[in-house]
């Protein structure tokens, strides 16, 4: 088991502090990462929350998946390991 959670369908205006408070009801939050677009800096509507313990992560996942957050129904699941990424095509053109 792991303690890093994927959080999807977030409102684009969500802040780290809001997620920390929301997930904090289920235990200590170690890290928050809201994913943003490289070019615009705007939220992509998903992120990751790392809880201190696996037990806290499972409790948060079970308690918050499918709940309303900022007017949207969020999806909370265990995060999958990050896959190796290939360079984007435009990266080839820069070389």
Describe the structure.
- By secondary structure, the protein is of the alpha+beta class.
- The chain has a single domain, classed as Alpha-Beta Plaits (2-Layer Sandwich).
- The chain has three helices and six strands; from the N terminus they run βαββαβββα.
- A hairpin with a 2-residue loop joins β4 and β5.
- The longest helix is centred in the middle third of the chain and has 11 residues.
H/E series: EHEEHEEEH
**Spatial sequence of strands, sheet with the most strands:** 2-3-1-6
Q: What share of the residues does DSSP label as strand, in percent?
A: 25-35%
Q: Kindly provide the name of the CATH class.
A: Alpha Beta
Question: How many domains in all?
Answer: 1
Radius of gyration: 15 Å
**Beta strand count:** 6
Poorly predicted parts? none
Structural category? alpha+beta
User: According to CATH, what is the topology?
Assistant: Alpha-Beta Plaits
Figure out the total of helices.
3
